[in-house]
Amino acid sequence: MKSLLSISSHVVHGYVGNRAITFPLQYMGWDVDAINTTNYSNHPGYGSLQGRALTPDAVKDILQGLHHVLDLNSYDLILTGYTPNADVLSVVKAEVVQVLQKQEGKIPHWIVDPVLGDNGKLYVSEKVIPVYKEILSTELVSLITPNQFEFETLSEAKITDWRACEVAIKAFAKKYNIGNIVISSVEIDNQLHCVGYTDGEIFSKPIRKIDCDFNGCGDLFTGLMANSYYENGYKITPKSISSVLSTLHNILQFSYDFELQISGQAPKVVKDIKVVAAKKYL
């Protein structure tokens, strides 16, 4: 049985964070354990929300409770996504590093989705940025899945063309000794691309753009990428990226068409991607 520990946000209504990650992976045969770093009524795309983020102590208690009932090294993958602040992320870092520094037996692969923001704008406190750099500096991260803004923030390099993209990715990989990088979307020459890196090789695939914003798209992408990464022997390949992009596009198009049918007009934002209704594409 494939098993994964996902540490990310939770909303009661909508599909972001663990809500966008858990069902698709379960449907694809994964045993998913989820630690929710938030417990919100809904995601911020609705304009308001209620609930609260977990405290660092609460996250630590949950992780230590897990230690008492199972060996965290039994997981195939540990995925870390949205964390509400630097203190919580520091706790996650400390606990995961402890697991991955085990000297013998099975060692899970660590996938980091560094949720910082998008479109030039931070969603979280700036204090989170150095903690992500500390995580990368452990050299224990197997795969990172930032968007362009997040990659540029962490690498401190701007992607303006293909040459700049290649230089930045190779420098980033060398600095943090990371074997697999996927930038979920990079805009070059007015075209979106998904860019992958595995052990010195860089490749890209064009993204079929839908003229609409989708809440939770990045979380779903990371979940799909996690499955593909595992199935390909812990490697990223052009074929695996194409497959993930195709699946993601089909789910987003289904969600777009659903909103169009309900409202009778083309949506500019899809607040809730139809992860369950579109399960035939998984």
TrEMBL record:
Belongs to the pyridoxine kinase family. One of its GO terms (cellular component) is cytosol. It is an enzyme of class 2 (transferase). Coiled coil: none annotated. GO terms for biological process: pyridoxal 5'-phosphate salvage. Its EC number is 2.7.1.35. It comes from Candida parapsilosis (Yeast). This is pyridoxal kinase. InterPro entries: PM/HMP-P_kinase-1 (IPR013749), PyrdxlKinase (IPR004625), Ribokinase-like (IPR029056). SUPFAM superfamilies: Ribokinase-like. GO terms for molecular function: ATP binding; pyridoxal kinase activity. Keywords: ATP-binding, Kinase, Nucleotide-binding, Transferase. The keyword Nucleotide-binding applies. The keyword Kinase applies. Residues 80-226 form the Pyridoxamine kinase/Phosphomethylpyrimidine kinase domain.
